[in-house]
Amino acid sequence: METASADGSAVGGTERLLLVEDDDGDALIVEDLLLGGAGAAAPLVRARSLAEAKTVLQASQDGSDVRISCVLLDLGLPDAHDLDAVRGVLEVGDVAVVCLTGLDDEHRGAAAVAAGAQDYLVKGAVDGELLRRALRYAVERRRAEEQSRQLYVSRLRAAENARLERGLLPLPQTQDPALGVTARYRPRHGDLLGGDFYDVVELPDGRVFVLLGDVAGHGPDEAALGVSLRIAWRALVLAEVPAEHVLAVLEDVLIRERRSEEIFAQATMLVIAADRRSATLWLAAHLPPMLLDPQPSQLPGDPSGAPLGLLPPGAWRGRRLRLPASWRILLYTDGLVEGRRGPGSFQVLGVPGLLELAAGARRSDSTSALVDDLLDRVQQAHGGEMPDDVAVVALQWPVGRPYR
After folding, report:
1. Of 20, 49, 156, 180, which has the maximum CB count within 10 A?
2. What is the pLDDT of residues 258-290, one digit of tens each?
3. Side by side, which strands form the sheet with 297-298?
């Protein structure tokens, strides 16, 4: 086993025990206890003060060859006493800490454990085997504590992500029994959330407003911004702000809420007339929706609409569309077309590939079954998890009419 001198110099890179003890006699006793038994001990590094200990721990945290796994800490140091020494070590190093205290100061050891140390030992009342066992247990206890902490953080993050997803992916607010709405969301690479969002709201006059959007980037900050945009959009719709002004106000919300000027969002807004025979489509640098029947085709839209927040105040023109007597419309984020045309292929699926897959999808009267089959085909073509988040909203009118 590699060895270290009492002054802390070491050869090679391995885990080490840091002894923080200003008394040379006590330090020699600890070294004899560690190395005198049959069990193997970690190479020893010596520090005589809290300041020296911090220097060694900082180097260990920064990737030095000297990797400290445990600190054996005297509670009476020249530059720190009692809990100050414990706190000073813990604020620098993510390590196990075992404290050394005198025969008449066991209460200090108990207080040190309460402050974050893993254990304490009484000088003069410990042999080599007990010392080595206490150090091993302290390291394992510290690892178990860190694993528990990481598990708690993971669960907390999952719960927060779930709340964000509920904000991004609300229940559609429609009253028309003849209007069917199917919504699906598949996160990127198994992530819990991204920046994709959607909403569907029907007003008392029968008009149906549909929003589908994507905040550039991934993670909780983008998801939170997506939630803000979706909620703001719903408020604008319910307040019956003229449809032609909604995206401009939404862009203002984005600019005020975002953390960086580089963050922008793409969006599609579709307003379906009360008679369901026409609609108006606004595109903010987003892909136009797809008409699923009789053959899948892309709806026409104004390609000049800028993303929300990317350029100085944008202007978006709505395009009026005539709809057939019965229809199914699919709105989707660009993650659906960013996959590959086949496993191992370098060719991006794109809109043409998506139309081909949609044409081959199971022609079911159930829009939800058709959408699920299409999503599965896209994922199979890609050969695994999608490279980006995918959100889709499919609208069907009237529900119950056979589609062939």
Report:
1. 20
2. 988 889 999 999 999 999 999 999 999 999 999
3. 180-186, 390-397, 327-332, 290-291, 297-298
> What is the per-residue pLDDT across 185-234, written as a single tens digit (0 to 9) for each?
887 765 556 678 999 999 999 999 999 999 987 777 888 888 899 999 99
Q: Which domain holds residue 85?
A: 14-151
Evaluate if pTM is beyond 0.85: no
Q: Is residue 204, in this structure, part of any structural domain at all? A: yes
Of 124, 151, 178, the domain-final residue: 151
Q: CA-CA distances (angstroms) from residue 140 to 95, 118, 124, 134, 151?
A: 11, 10, 25, 10, 16
Mean per-residue pLDDT over the chain, rounded: 83
Number of domains in the chain: 2
**156's tokens:** 């907390």
Please report, for residues 293, 375, 398, the alpha-carbon distance to residue 366 in angstroms, rounded to integers and kept in the order given: 13, 14, 12
- Please indicate, yes or no, whether residues 97 and 184 belong to a single structural domain of this protein: no
Of 118, 151, 184, which marks where a domain is finished? 151
